[in-house]
Specification:
mainly alpha; elongated
């Protein structure tokens, strides 16, 4: 017989965060992207060393950092390391587990009243769920509970997207700064055109800045920005599900109705898996009852 812990949706292994809380998809993506570029260089008979250009790096990265500070402010730029770690370590909510917890709350509240949930809140891991249910237990008006929780979610949504916009800003400016670096290099080359033998090599070096700008934008900045936006969407959706469940408990809905409302927040594939696990559990219970 399957127990409640078996009623959970297991994401595809390729998408599941592993390795001690680190989302390996981001690191794997970087490795594949950089590996493809570097592999292509060697297939063409080139090498990474030929693309080393410290001056181009200073122009592109220094210029991008400067205009980003001017655009979004110093405080937002200081948060770049922490937002990168958020993208790297983001863990999606275990929605089936949260559904089981809220349905359990609904069953208990329907039998014994809302006040009995206060003991369960001490062991509830999800802080947002705990605070929301505590508002309900305290007898807060339903509209006020909804307003408080939705305001928090809206604030979180804006904060997360502001973090992502910093990376998007860098991804937008970096290619332009790369072109600026290339123009600077070409000006220097043409100002010293008296040595035709070194002209081709000097022009090649000048174009490294464009490579740095395009590469940093499309291989680092924009992917991280998109990752952060995806994390924000998932996080907000999960909290919206919790709000729906908390309000359903407060209104005294039947636990089965509470479950149906929450299962609707799962994807089609995950919803099918959840229902299959649920049917397996219920079938196991029925078999035991018949045996008794």
């Amino acid at each position: 017989m399957a127990d409640d812990d078996d009623i959970q949706v297991v994401a595809d292994e390729a998408d599941a965060p592993k390795g001690g809380g680190i989302d390996l998809s981001l690191l794997i993506g970087f490795a594949v992207a950089f590996g493809g570029v570097i592999g292509g260089l060697y297939m063409e008979g080139s090498s990474v060393g030929k693309y080393y250009g410290p001056s181009a790096g200073v122009i592109v990265l220094g210029g991008t950092l400067g205009v980003t500070i001017a655009s979004v402010g110093l405080a937002a730029v200081k948060s770049i390391p922490s937002t990168f770690m958020h993208a790297l370590k983001y863990q999606t909510m275990d929605r089936p587990k949260s559904i089981n917890t809220l349905v359990g709350f609904a069953e208990k509240a329907r039998r014994e009243g809302l006040l009995v949930l206060e003991d369960d809140l001490r062991t509830t891991e999800d802080e947002f769920m705990r605070r929301g249910v505590q508002l309900v237990v305290d007898g807060t008006d339903p509209e006020l509970v909804k307003e408080i929780l939705r305001t928090e979610v809206d604030s979180l949504h804006e904060e997360r997207h502001a973090d992502a916009s910093v990376w998007d800003t860098m991804g937008g400016f970096a290619p332009t700064l790369g072109i600026c670096g290339t123009v600077i290099g070409l000006v220097l080359v043409l100002s010293n055109i008296s040595d035709p033998s070194s002209l081709a090599a000097s022009i090649a070096v000048a174009f490294i800045a464009t490579l740095y700008g395009l590469g940093s934008a499309n291989l680092i900045f924009l992917p991280v920005g998109n990752k952060l936006k995806g994390c924000a969407t998932d996080e907000v959706s999960g909290k919206e599900m919790l709000i729906e469940g908390i309000l359903a408990i407060q209104s005294g809905d039947n636990p089965r109705i509470v479950e149906e409302k929450l299962v609707a927040f799962l994807t089609t594939k995950d919803r099918a898996r959840y229902r299959a696990a649920k049917e397996l559990k219920d079938g196991g219970d029925l078999d035991m009852d018949l045996a008794a």
